[in-house]
Amino acid sequence: MAFDIRNEIEKLKKEKNAVILAHNYQVKEVQEIADFVGDSFELAKIGKEADAEIIVFCGVRFMAESAAILSPEKKVLLPVEDAGCPLADTIKAEDVKALKKSYPRIPVVTYINSSVEVKAESDYCCTSSNAVDVVNSIDSDKVIFIPDSNLGSFVQEHTNKKLILWDGHCTVHHRVNVEDILRIKAIYDNSFVICHPECRPEVVEACDIACSTSKMIEEAKKTDKKTVILVTEEGMRHRIQKEVKDKLIVIASPKLMCVNMKKTKLQHVYEALALEQTEVKVSEEIREKALIPLKRMLQIGKRQKQFIGA
Ligand code: 13P
Ligand code: SF4
User: Fold this and answer.
1) What pLDDT sits at residue 265?
2) Does position 41 have pLDDT exceeding 90, yes or no?
3) Residue range 158-162: mean pLDDT, rounded
4) Cα separation of 220 and 9, whole Å?
5) pTM of the full predicted structure?
6) Which of 24, 31, 39, 151 to mutate to test the pocket of ligand 1 (most atoms within 8 A of CB)?
7) Cβ-based neighbour number of residue 6 at 10 Å
8) Do the beta carbons of residue 39 and residue 127 sit within 8 Å?
9) pLDDT > 70? residue 124
């Protein structure tokens, strides 16, 4: 019988009691083989709750690291070892220590797009889906927000607290400028434009809404416009078009491609499962410290849900 990589992945998954998680930006084939596809926040929660011994994390390193911090009893595999995030690389633990020295007693909120060492120096974590809620929940009128200054500026627009920002950017979203938005809007008039809050503030201003990757799916379903323009990584097009069949989904610019998110192919998922590589290892000392801000973030998420449900 011919070798069918999808069947082999399914077989190995069952044999090894593994779960495959994929970020919304992954290539179509990887999204399709995954058990769950979602944004950073959803995947962090799903990984923790999954009844599995192995997590194959198809995304970038910081995401797999977050899963390893939250699920020490599971083996977390990152199929492509050098799938990193240039935004996460803009800040090191030493930089956070220096910031805390310059601004004593000011809580540090760290975007999940950061290394485990940076998280270990932080008070709270957040993702793009809960950054505003996390900042607003803190009992302090000043907050250090790292490392994405565009997301920080977005949060600043939605809080009365004063944010101290770090000058980090996502190289993909920061490339897009207002001219790109005006050009695509002129082609598709009468469209709904959704961007990620990692975009520049003036780009956010030129769009209809800024939200996390998974919230984009809800917004694309809700709008009565027939064309939805996405100002985010191009993998989102497939993710949304699959669920929103009656609308045209377009990506605002060819600049919106994250090479790191595109590194993982089906072959790597197969190899990861077959050889149980590359395991993401975090020292217990750092893991315990990094767990605190991540747990606080999940707790805030739970409280918000209770409040909304009340
Ligand atoms: P989400 O948390 O919205 O999935 O975004 C992650 C990311 O890397 C955006 O560039
Ligand atoms: Fe990092 Fe940007 Fe790629 Fe997201 S899209 S993984 S923030 S470089």
Assistant:
1) 98
2) no
3) 98
4) 32
5) 0.94
6) 39
7) 13
8) yes
9) yes
What token pair was written down for 174?
């920061």
For the chain, domains (ranges, CATH) are 5-82+261-279 (3.40.50.10800), 88-169+288-308 (3.40.50.10800), 177-251 (3.40.50.10800)
Question: Which tokens hold the place of 41?
Answer: 């926040």
* 175-182, long-range: CB < 8 A, 24+ apart: 175/253, 175/255, 175/256, 176/200, 176/203, 176/231, 176/252, 176/253, 176/255, 176/256, 177/202, 177/203, 178/202, 178/203, 178/206, 180/252, 180/253, 180/255, 181/206, 181/207, 181/231, 181/252, 182/206
**Which ligand places an atom closest to the C-alpha of 59?**
2
> pLDDT by residue (tens digit) across 65-105?
999 999 999 999 999 999 999 999 999 999 999 999 999 99
Residue 127 near ligand 1, beta carbon < 6 Å: yes
Map residue 76 onto helix, strand or coil: strand
Which residue is it, tokens 């469209």?
Answer: 191
